[in-house]
Specification:
This protein is mostly helical. Helices cover about 50% and strands about 0% of the residues. It is built from 16 helices and three strands. A three-stranded antiparallel β-sheet has the order 1-2-3, with no helix packed on it. Helix 3 runs antiparallel to helix 4, helix 6 packs antiparallel against helix 7 and helix 8 packs antiparallel against helix 12.
Length: about 725
């Protein structure tokens, strides 16, 4: 029994403190709320739990237990086969060393760990902040522990001077930015540091949780023991116990928080070092900022490339046409093939631009690639022309002398001058016969043709004078400008004659188109009215098929998904046809092409293709609109932008397929191209303003608008031709 009045427990150690009631078969219970265990030492105010078969834990000297060592405030004596338990919260482990803040008691066949928080490893060295050493096996002769001097496993070496190191704490290697692989006999990886820190954090958290939960587990399982006749110091002891309980609750939380903070700091530090490291395994510095131009700038570049390539291809066609009058087809075959290849590249670029304007593709990166592809196609078209430009210049030989080329240009000029007067008479007749809308596309064409011929007259005279004075290069420039003006005058004159022919053809097709439209309307009504299927279709249209069921190929679904919507379409077609018949019989000048366009568009949703006249009518309207837009762009290419050219190129592509289904869309695109081109010309300004009183400036405004001569230097600049677009004299003399 201890010095206090506590009752002793059989075969167990006593617990000192205040007098407590003894329990049979158990040790005494002190002020601590912990219940004693059977066959174990008593529980005192210390937070340590006794282990079965071991001595008791207390802050005061305790009575020794038979077969066990006692625990007191004095230096602890080792237990038989175990280490001693000190004031630290660690539990002793059989056959292992103890853990405390003081030097550990040596254990047989184990190494000791001092001062360092690392646990020793059998037959290996301990881990600490100093170079690693191995600890040899300890022996205990006569109950004393003797340590053999350590064996050095890793001896530091002097690093190479001037070599950069990514890890300053490991000085064992001499290669720059390379981690030593001698540690534990395997290479070290960056991820191991993170895993070790995470393991430390998890271990600390687990220890804190165990420390927090363990008191409740030990005291909640047994019934509490009533305390009778409490001593006068019971209240003070209870207050002290509550204070210790609060400390026991806060310390684990602090430990867990500290472990988490250390792990987070290590992880952040590791990430920073990985980002700025110079070793091959690191990610290095962030990528440089994006150097590609923005989408808007690339769009402008693509539009400019389309305009320049289209102008050059058109000028090459013009010059090739004049060269064909003096050279054979075999001589110009290589040049013609290069022009066709350039046209193919340009058509592909326009097709890409059309899809781009339609919203295909939708991703920004893909749209950038599309614009880059457009620029590349246009550049390739220019390279095809450049590849034969020198050969073509040799075939023409204008720099060596105008020769017969001047005579060819003057001959065409005289021919067009006569045709311009005839075209003026034709245009006057068309105005008297048809509505103003029928001739709106050629309004002013004769005047513009005369303006181009006036410019050609001036340049032809200048070319002859320069040739007579020996200025061959200047004479060649003047001749090319005159050829371009003559070619555009021919477009104006030929446009008047072509429109007259289209109007006559459309006027002859209108009655048949109306009959075919009514036949399509009657057939569509029979598909929705079973009682009307037995009645023959009015007029000389094709008789209905023997099968009364609707034709699957008929676009009834396009007319409306519901019967009500389809009937609305039928009513609309009927109203349009009635309006057309009323206009034709009203005595007003008609617009045959406009009438065909209205009939085709109205019957397109319900047409089945049985009336073959409607596809022919659609061909007339699409062909007329496309030709009018092409003439306008060709004669105003100095002001027309890329969008109008793109719509025109798409209309020409659809018209060339020969598919009747592509004709209505081609007509719509051609009309849009003409409208956009006229808008561009209006934004460019009055094309017929020139300097008054100077002969050489007559018609220059129209030539600039037509892209024949550059606006910056119309007198001495290089005109558009096979070698390139129109450019001023400074650009001609500047190095490429």
């Amino acid at each position: 029994m201890g010095p206090t009045g506590a009752s002793a427990a059989p075969d167990c150690g006593s617990a000192s403190g205040t007098p407590l009631t003894s329990v049979p078969g158990f040790g005494s219970v002190s002020d601590s709320p912990r219940a004693p265990f059977s066959g174990c030492g008593s529980v005192s105010d210390s937070p340590f739990l006794p282990v079965p078969g071991c001595g008791s834990a207390s802050g005061t000297p305790l009575t020794s237990v038979p077969g066990f060592g006692s625990v007191s405030d004095s230096p602890r004596a080792p237990f038989s086969g175990c280490g001693s338990v000190s004031d630290s919260p660690f539990l002793p482990v059989p056959d292992c060393g103890s853990a405390s803040g003081t030097p550990f008691v040596s254990v047989p066949d184990r190494g000791a760990a001092t001062g360092s928080p690392f646990v020793s490893v059998p037959d290996r060295g301990s881990a600490s902040g100093t170079p690693f050493t191995s600890v040899s096996v300890f022996v205990r002769p006569g109950g004393r522990s003797i340590a053999v001097p350590p064996r050095v496993l890793f001896r530091p070496t002097t690093p190479v001077s001037g070599a950069s190191r990514s890890r300053g704490r490991n000085r064992g290697h001499t290669l720059p930015n390379v981690t030593s692989s001698l540690l534990r006999g395997r290479p070290r990886r960056a991820k191991s540091h993170i895993s070790v820190r995470v393991a430390h954090a998890v271990l600390g958290g687990a220890v804190g949780v165990v420390w927090l939960v363990l008191p409740g587990m030990t005291s909640g399982g047994d019934a509490p023991v009533a305390i009778k006749n409490p001593a006068p110091g019971a209240s003070a002891a209870a207050a002290e116990a509550d204070e210790r309980s609060t400390v026991d609750l806060v310390l684990p939380l602090v430990a867990v928080g500290a472990a988490g903070a250390i792990a987070g700091y290590g992880y952040i530090r590791r990430v920073r070092r990985t980002r700025v490291r110079t070793t091959p395994g690191g990610t290095g510095s962030p990528p440089p900022p994006r150097s590609s131009p923005p989408l808007a700038a690339l769009d402008e570049q693509a539009c400019a490339a389309l305009v320049e390539a289209d102008n050059r291809v058109r000028a090459a066609r013009t010059e090739l046409g004049f060269a064909g009058a003096l050279r054979t087809a075999e001589d110009l075959e290589t040049v013609r093939r290069a022009v066709r290849e350039a046209e193919t590249e340009l058509a592909a670029a326009f097709r890409m631009r059309q899809r781009y304007d339609e919203g295909v593709p939708t991703q920004e990166a893909a749209r950038e690639h599309t614009l880059a592809g457009i620029v590349g196609r246009c550049a390739e078209a220019g390279r095809r022309l450049d590849s034969v430009a020198q050969e073509f210049g040799r075939l023409r030989g204008l720099e060596q002398g105008l020769g017969e080329a001047l005579g060819v240009a003057e001959g065409r000029f005289r021919e067009l001058a006569g045709r311009a007067g005839a075209s003026e008479a034709v245009l006057a007749g068309l105005r008297d016969r048809y509505a103003p809308t029928a001739t709106a596309s050629i309004t002013g064409s004769v005047e513009q043709a005369k303006d181009r011929l006036l410019f050609a007259t001036v340049r032809l005279n200048q070319a002859r004078q320069s040739a007579d004075s020996g200025q061959a290069e200047r004479a060649a420039r003047q001749l090319r400008a005159a050829e371009g003006a003559v070619a555009q005058a021919a477009v104006f004159v030929e446009g008047v004659g072509r429109l007259a022919a289209e109007l006559r053809s459309a006027e002859q097709t209108v009655p048949a188109a109306l009959t075919g439209a009514e036949a399509e309307l009657a057939w569509a009504r029979r598909q929705t009215d079973p009682s009307a299927r037995q009645r023959p279709a009015p007029g000389p249209a094709t008789p209905p098929p023997a099968d009364p069921r609707p034709d699957p190929s008929a676009p009834l679904g396009a007319a409306g998904a519901t019967p009500g919507g389809f009937h609305v379409r039928l009513a609309h077609v009927d109203a349009v046809l009635g309006s057309v018949r009323q206009e034709l019989t009203g005595g007003q000048p008609p617009d045959p092409v406009g009438v065909l366009r209205r009939v085709v568009r109205a019957t397109a949703p319900v047409a089945s293709g049985r009336a073959g006249v409607l596809p022919a009518a659609a061909l007339i309207t699409a062909r007329t609109a496309t030709a009018a837009a092409a003439d306008f762009v060709a004669t105003h290419r100095g002001a027309v932008g890329a969008t109008a050219r793109t719509r025109l190129a798409e209309a020409e592509r659809l018209l060339a397929t020969g598919d009747p289904a592509d004709r209505p869309p081609a007509d719509i695109l051609a009309l849009e191209a003409r409208e956009l081109a006229e808008r561009d010309v209006r934004a460019h300004g009055n094309p017929y303003v020139g300097a008054v009183g100077a002969e050489e400036t007559a018609g220059t405004g129209g030539a600039v608008l037509g892209g024949i001569v550059p606006a910056e230097d119309p007198e001495d600049g290089t005109p558009a031709g096979f070698a390139g677009p129109a450019r001023p004299a400074e650009a001609r003399h500047s190095p490429e």
